[in-house]
Amino acid sequence: MSNLFADVSDPKCVLCGDALLERKYKNSDGTFFVCSNHECGAFYAVLSDGTIRLRRQAECPTCYDPDGKHQMVSEGFSRKDDSSYFKCRSCGEYFDYDEASGTLSRRMNKVRPEAPCPANCGGKALQYERKDKSGVFWKCSNCEQFFDDKDGVPVARKQRA
Question: Is the pTM of this model over 0.85?
Fold first, then answer.
């Protein structure tokens, strides 16, 4: 796909050519655009410089929905520098996008440490960095419990009084 940007002065969908509709996010002041053709369903982000950019979608190579189809992963954009990323909401993994094939491949340089779930649910605990960069925590992919980190190993959280 060569053109991912819509014209700001007259927003039209780069996929089907129909008009774009501006929408507001429920919980913030930001806006986004959607294609007026419901069958097209294209979704556009407004970047920090005001440009309108198509949010691409691709199949997660590891996750499946209940019907046995791959989960869809949408492209996101960093608030700092508008760089794009693909993160699956189901497995939490980050992926690189291959322009030629339109497929995703796991980012090998961002492999997240994993360990058996301390709650013995049979799931895997995955390590995450805290938003404020003050350390790491663990979350189970199965039972979704959170765990503290002790020397690179997930441990049950301390009870707070």
Answer: no
